Amino acid sequence: MPHHFADRLLDACKTKGAPVCVGLDPVLERLPDAIDQSGPVAAIEAFCLGVIDAVAGVVPAVKPQSACFERYGAPGVAVYHRAVAHAKAAGLIVVGDAKRGDIGTSSAHYAHGLLADPHGCDSLTVNGYLGGDGIEPFQQVARAQGKGLFVLVRTSNPGGDAIQSLPLADGRTVSEAVGDVVAGLGADCVGESGYSNVGMVVGATKPEDAAKLRQRYPQQLFLVPGFGAQGGGAEDVRACFKPDGTGALITASRSVIYVSHEGNSTWQQVVEQAAIQLRDDVSEIMRV
Amino acid sequence: MPHHFADRLLDACKTKGAPVCVGLDPVLERLPDAIDQSGPVAAIEAFCLGVIDAVAGVVPAVKPQSACFERYGAPGVAVYHRAVAHAKAAGLIVVGDAKRGDIGTSSAHYAHGLLADPHGCDSLTVNGYLGGDGIEPFQQVARAQGKGLFVLVRTSNPGGDAIQSLPLADGRTVSEAVGDVVAGLGADCVGESGYSNVGMVVGATKPEDAAKLRQRYPQQLFLVPGFGAQGGGAEDVRACFKPDGTGALITASRSVIYVSHEGNSTWQQVVEQAAIQLRDDVSEIMRV
Fold first, then answer.
1. What is the ipTM score, two decimals?
2. Residue A167 domain boundaries
3. What is the pTM of this model?
């Protein structure tokens, strides 16, 4: 029986000192000058591997954003898979941010391509708009292989409100209706930590909603984007944790991987320093 | 100014005789014996190119299912892109079935990788759970390049009900809330045919909902999966059309590409025959 995903993630967060995740969103225009940019695909690969090496000793997890790689077609997808392998080899927990979701037979293909051993990530983001039978094939792979899912419930972008925060006739919101499906799917796979391997994406920019969702779903880990560049602050993030300081993995991309480069430091030293800052900021938030 | 997507699609449907689309869902276990299956990626490529050649004279459009290709990692994605190119070269309209959707910056990367010239499809399926700002980057590319979108509104799988058919406090359903966002985004890009380049995915297995959505969104083309293998019948499909016989593109995969092989016909002749049957069945439905 493989080690339960939630237990593994919580252990790694404890070891590294804070539940934080660095997003790998390689964008050619923003790469450090020190990286050879004569070939775009080689450049994003050099950048991603360099970021992974820089943060591997500091944070428990990384989150490659599939869109940034798919932009470059199949060669970009090959870089995505090599970055995943490099991060796993460095001992990091990898959250593949692909937001896939389809009817069951197609979700099963996605699960095999993006989540299953030997090439898959440790966990994957999933879009649950198609309902439980669109998520279940991902969970079949995750359950069997000690992996995790984070299903979109309340996203960090402004436009999400027009759908996710709508009130239903039964008193719930659309987010809660999706969340209830997600929590139900994960209820039979709870680790020793008390958390299911099926978590949720809950943005740091909607603290009132996050606080309600935190209460409603005690067994779900929240993957929390939106801290930093998207505007989420300390108070917003705090709403995603339980009083014992567990329950959320705070993810930041641009504020860690694209920081201005000063003095004699290399770009990797600057990224490492920004990851340390993220870790310390989140530790501080959890202490208060 | 590129030719408007909806006008182009309707013209192609008229030329070929019916608004039908063949889904390319290559699954290794189901390929015809005549295809060399010593290498899985080469086998799905041979199959997809063979299906395209077989149906190009019969139907106006094909819909490659990205999941079936991503299952095989980057080499599979390379086959996806080669199949798209082959279908475009054969004069087919290509609906990339990738169901992507993310926050704006990431959606823009997906749009460039999967929809934009020169490598992109003619249109792409999109998951709108993140709201308008997650769809808009796709529409920016589509508007500029004469391409189309089909946003998931009411899917064909049983599990969709638990979310999409829920009644909101304001009297709409969740599907209608998503549909309203989608219709709003496409309102400024309506072709001579009266249809927007931004359409919707509406399954053939939910005829009551389809009829209501058909009334509610007169400017939206419906991409209609679920006919045939998923259980949708003639009456179900009819609900997706306007009285003038326009408004829907009926898509079928398994019932066309995986048909049993009898007598002296080659597998491609059998697929062509099944595509002719699909075309004739849908023509008949529209005539009644």
1. 0.97
2. 5-287
3. 0.97
